[in-house]
Design a protein that fits this description.
This protein has five helices and no strands. By secondary structure, the protein is mostly helical. InterPro entries: FKBP4/5/8-like, TPR-like_helical_dom_sf.
Length: 127
Amino acid sequence: MGGTTTSKADINTEDDISDLDKQISVIYSNMAACQVRLKKVGRAVECAETALKRNKFNTKAKFRLVQGLIEEGSLIKAGSLLDELEKDKPDDAAFKNERAKIAAKEKEAEAKQRKELGGMFDRGKKN
């Protein structure tokens, strides 16, 4: 049966991955997509990571991981993974959309931090 898995040391190309691992990776990637839509971020990240353990070349799983990480607030890690994806497809609209989400979340976090720390140094001001 074609259900054996290959050792990670032997995997250099996608052709080195068994058909079973490819199929399982696709299933977990699809589960991650569902979890992202359901806003179950932790589970989405978990499914995407499992998909990538089975097939590190699964770009859809990597993209789902980026989506989950953005929702989770792990913007630096999401940005780094997005950089990897953009190397192969620099003009992909979905990647640009996720890049815009990262920028918006960073701007939102910066504004929140400014608001929270805004009056921190106003020492003796009293009304």
